[in-house]
Amino acid sequence: MLDEVRVDAVWGCKIGSLGNTNLPPGADAPMREAVSRAYEELTGTSRQFIFSGWGEALTPIERAIAENSPIPEPTDPLMESERYRMQMAGISTAAMGYWKEGESIHPDYDTVALHDVAKLYAKYAHLAESKAQTVDVAAIREVIVQLRHSSIWDTTGALGWCNGLAKTLDAALPKE
To answer: Which domain holds residue 13?
Structure first.
């Protein structure tokens, strides 16, 4: 976005060659000085910090590009974590009403998001089980607000799911 304001001006770069390279003592200084000069020429200001050094590593995708090899399939590091997968499974069971607040759960899988989802499900289930002929619009609007401001967004990446549910509920309600 062109109108976007950047708070920090931080530039990153990896430069090198594949395989062993004999570096002389103090090999970092010329690189550091060149980058610092270029930064000052480009921005018109002095740098406030610079972090550099030999010994960086390429990501698997960067290495494949440097070697002109096929790019590996991206992996989601969170999904490689058994604990994270179990937390997501717990949240899913709460979303379907199979786990409720007050029931026991292993401490490794107990998250704020799990409790938020269980509370939202309980409110939704209460509305769905209501025998009343009229819908409690205020209660549904409260669930929508909570969906949009829940910690689920930050801890699970379930933004799309919650936002979609909030939009669906909102669209089904009579307009004020």
So the answer is: 1-74
pLDDT 10s digits, 79-104: 677 777 777 777 777 777 777 888 88
Our count of domains for the chain comes to 2
Q: Could you say which of 28, 54, 74 is where a domain stops?
A: 74
Handedness of CA 165, 169, 172, 175 (dihedral sign): negative
Cβ 18 vs Cβ 67: under 8 Å: yes
Give the end of a domain, one of 74, 107, 134. Answer: 74
pTM above 0.70, yes or no: no
Cα angle 25, 28, 33 (rounded to 5 degrees) comes to: 130
**Chain centre distance of CA 176:** 34
Give every CB contact of residue 39 below 8 A, 6+ residues apart in sequence: 11, 47
CA distance 137 to 135: 6
Task: Give the integer Cα–Cα distance in Å for 152 and 97.
Answer: 16
Could you give the CA distance from residue 172 to residue 135 in angstroms, rounded to a whole number?
11
> Rounded to whole angstroms, how far apart are CA atoms 142 and 69?
52
The alpha-carbon radius of gyration of the chain (Å, integer) is: 26
